[in-house]
Write a structure and sequence with these properties.
This protein is largely without helices or strands. The chain is flat, with a radius of gyration of 15 Å.
């Protein structure tokens, strides 16, 4: 299963990537980018 954060409140159904994967074992990598605010 793949899941990702989708920024914003509106979904854009034609603005995404679809990858057709067969059932199997996959390695999972995750990244974290802290939100930086300036002000």
């Amino acid at each position: 299963m793949f899941d990702s954060a989708w920024p914003g409140a509106e979904l854009e159904p034609d603005n995404h990537l679809v990858i057709d994967l067969r059932p199997s074992e996959y390695r999972v990598r995750a990244t974290y980018r802290p939100m930086v605010t300036t002000g």
